[in-house]
Structures are given as structure tokens and as C-alpha cells.
Write a structure and sequence with these properties.
Blueprint (H helix, E strand, L loop, with lengths): L2 H21 L1 H6 L10 H52 L15 H31 L15 H31 L15 H39 L7 H16 L59
Helix pairs in contact: 1-3, 1-6, 1-7
């Protein structure tokens, strides 16, 4: 099976799953694994797509694992050949009886020489350590427990045990004081108190909190993985050379089916005016009965023209 086709099939199937979820958010949010949502047409299509994607993903993983194993075998063979060539080149530059040659590694004379060399190195290291210890002891009092010669003296051992006990007690006392101070700032039924650590209600709350956090983390990781695969599938199917790929053609067909199965959003009705209510006309300004309208001033007339007065408005007869 072609690994390229398997990878494209996995990505297209994942894109199909997300497409159904985006086109049918009601089924995706309700949980297509639960009854009665699982028997709806949209959820049946989504569950079938998920099953197909899982099968294709398993086949693609097996093919990728086989390809990786074959490539690893080739790399190991090349590495071994390169190592052998380097070893032969290094041996050619040495004398035939040189113990550094790979062919002389297990000769008895070379083994004996290596053992003697290691013995001399260990003796030199031990002599240096003994000299440093003697120099440090000479600067201390004969009964000082820090001397190497007093390490196993009973009085020094008792003093070391007592010192460790006092340090542990002081540390424990400080921890208990800090815990009590923190508990005094909390309510009596607060699960953060040290005394409520093993109360059943607090244990149940902590368990539920951990479960919710784990579920959120897993959902986020799965969504990220599917999003990356979907993006790859989109890029793959958008290339002109892959338009006629069977997986891409199948994806287009299933997207069309999912779009038909997706519920369409109903348009919200627009508010209609009340039939019984009538629009009231805005009151028009009326002139007083005894007032007269003045003519608006006209622009300055030319020498050969006469100004015409502006007609005055008639008083309105409407009553308020």
C-alpha cells in the first residue's frame, strides 16, 4: 500500500469528521456516542466517518512503522560500513604489533599491558586521596569528629545522630506552625485546610476537579491534532494535481451530504407594528390670530430692478 495515499486518506477522513462537526454543531455538542443522538442521520454519518478514519489511521501507522524500520536498517548498515572503513584506515597507520590496533585488542600481551596501566593509575589516585586526607586531619584536634580517624568513634556517632534529630524536629515544628497559621485564615469547612484533607466531600471534589482538568486537556490535545491534520488535508486537496484523488473526491461528496443533513438556522421574525396603534401627527406651529407676518428682508436691489416682497404665510385655523 502506498504510504502517501494512506496519509492522504487519514487527513481527508479527519477533515471529514471536523466538517460534519462544523456543519452540524447540534449533533457534535450533544454527543453522537450517546442515545438518542447516536441514531440521528448526522451522528450516524459522523460515527461512520470516525470509524473509517480510525481504520485508515491504523493502516497508515503500520505502513509508516514498516517504512521507518526499513530506513533504520539501511541507516545502521551504512553506519557500520563507515565505522569499519574508519577502523581499517586507523589500523593501517599503526605498527602491526601496536596494541591500539583493533586486531590486537584481545592479544594477551596487550591485555596484560592494559591491566598494569589501570593498576598504576588506581594506585596513584589512592595515594593522592590519602595524602589529602592526612593533610586535612593534621589541621584538626585529635578528638575532633571531623577527622577521618574519628568517623566511627561512638561519641562522634551519637553526636551526629542527635544533631540530625534536632534538625528534623526544628523543621517539623516550623512546618506545623506554618500549617496552623494557614488553616486559621480559612473557613472551618474549606477543603484547603490540612484537617479537611481526608474528608470524603473534599476527596470527591478534588477527584472531580482532576477528572475535569484531564478531560479538558485531552480534548484540547485531540482538537489540536485534528486541526493540524485537517489543515494538511485542505492543503493536499487544494492542489490542482490532487483534485481527482479518490479520497478528495469522496471528501467533497460526503461534505455535500453533511451539509444537507445539517440543520438550517431559522430567520428570526422581525417585529411588526401593532395594528391598533396609529401614528400621531406631529403638531404644526400655528400663528396667533392677532399677529401679522412680516416680510423677509430682500437683498439690496440694483438700479434697474425692484424688490418683490416675500408672501406672508396664512394663519393656521387648527386648534390645539
Amino acid at each position: 500500500m502506498n504510504p502517501r495515499k494512506l496519509i492522504s486518506g487519514v487527513c481527508v477522513s479527519l477533515l471529514l469528521i471536523l466538517g460534519i462537526q462544523f456543519l452540524n454543531p447540534t449533533a457534535a455538542s450533544a454527543g453522537c456516542r450517546d442515545y438518542p443522538e447516536s441514531v440521528t442521520e448526522a451522528c450516524v454519518a459522523q460515527n461512520l466517518a470516525e470509524q473509517q478514519a480510525s481504520q485508515i489511521a491504523y493502516a497508515a501507522a503500520q505502513a509508516a512503522q514498516q517504512a521507518a524500520a526499513a530506513q533504520a536498517a539501511i541507516d545502521n548498515a551504512n553506519r557500520d560500513a563507515a565505522d569499519r572503513a574508519a577502523t581499517q584506515a586507523a589500523d593501517a597507520a599503526l605498527a602491526p604489533d601496536d596494541c591500539s590496533r583493533s586486531t590486537n585488542r584481545f592479544l594477551q600481551s596487550c591485555v596484560d599491558a592494559a591491566v598494569e596501566r589501570a593498576r598504576l593509575q588506581n594506585e596513584a589516585r589512592n595515594a593522592a586521596d590519602v595524602a589529602a586526607t592526612n593533610a586535612a586531619d593534621s589541621a584538626l584536634a585529635p578528638d575532633d569528629c571531623s577527622r577521618s580517624t574519628n568517623r566511627f568513634v561512638q561519641s562522634c556517632m551519637d553526636a551526629a545522630v542527635e544533631k540530625a534529630r534536632a534538625e528534623n524536629e526544628a523543621k517539623q515544628t516550623a512546618v506545623e506552625a506554618a500549617t496552623k497559621a494557614a488553616d486559621s485564615l480559612l473557613a472551618a469547612d474549606d477543603c484547603s485546610r490540612s484537617t479537611n484533607r481526608f474528608v470524603q466531600s473534599c476527596i470527591d471534589a478534588a477527584t472531580e476537579k482532576a477528572r475535569a482538568e484531564n478531560t479538558a486537556i485531552q480534548a484540547e490535545a485531540q482538537a489540536d491534532e485534528i486541526a493540524r491534520s485537517v489543515e494538511f488535508a485542505k492543503d493536499y486537496c487544494s492542489q490542482p494535481a490532487n483534485k481527482l484523488d479518490p479520497q478528495c473526491v469522496k471528501l467533497s461528496a460526503v461534505e455535500a451530504v453533511a451539509e444537507k443533513l445539517a440543520p438550517k438556522a431559522k430567520a428570526s421574525p422581525s417585529p411588526t407594528p401593532n395594528k391598533s396603534s396609529k401614528a400621531k401627527p406631529s403638531p404644526t406651529p400655528t400663528a396667533k390670530k392677532g399677529s401679522k407676518a412680516k416680510a423677509s428682508p430682500s437683498p439690496s436691489p440694483k438700479s434697474s430692478s425692484k424688490a418683490k416682497p416675500t408672501p406672508s404665510p396664512k394663519p393656521s385655523t387648527s386648534k390645539r
